[in-house]
Amino acid sequence: MRSVCFSIAILLAVPFRASAAGPGPDQQDPIRDRLFPPELIMQHQAELGLEEGQRTALMKEVAAFQSQMIDVQWRMSAAAEELAHLLDAPRVDEARALAQADKVMALERDVKKSHLALLIRIRNLLSDAQRAQLAKLRGAAP
Known about the structure:
Layout: H1 2-12, H2 38-43, H3 45-48, H4 52-87, H5 94-125, H6 128-140
């Protein structure tokens, strides 16, 4: 079951970029470069001078996101399982399979939108100086 969901997620994944190919090796990702994953902030919280209030707010945001994702993962798993069941038929009902694929993709869209919202809220918790420091730290990473 897990491999079915993973396979479907890989097949249906759509990059969050204008170009399906994504940025080349010499190009920057304009969205990624403006947002910071919570892991990066946690790794460098002392260097950033993260205040207790910021740390608490960040942990609340991440916890809320993770809680929301549990529900979405269950629904996505069920929807993907149903799609796989439809695709197992000797003759696939194209309309039903595509309708079910729409349900899976809508859930994937919800995940991406929620993730973007989380990253925006995290970014808004940081000062200008902290964002500049994170950009430097990310640029120095291998």
